[in-house]
């Protein structure tokens, strides 16, 4: 169990990841909070599969 300086209890080790030069995760206050949005939503005609994020006219790879 991990305690932060604020007394918050975590049962798992807090990890930090770097994506496109931005560090996310870690202890509260260690890195800025981020929000990742999407322009697609469940029921959108372009969204083929909401579980995988598949969209019409786009083939990843």
TrEMBL record:
GO MF annotation terms: methyltransferase activity
Keywords for the protein's UniProt record, in alphabetical order: Methyltransferase, Transferase
GO biological process: methylation; one-carbon metabolic process
Domain of life where this protein originates: Archaea
Protein name, entry field: Tetrahydromethanopterin S-methyltransferase subunit H
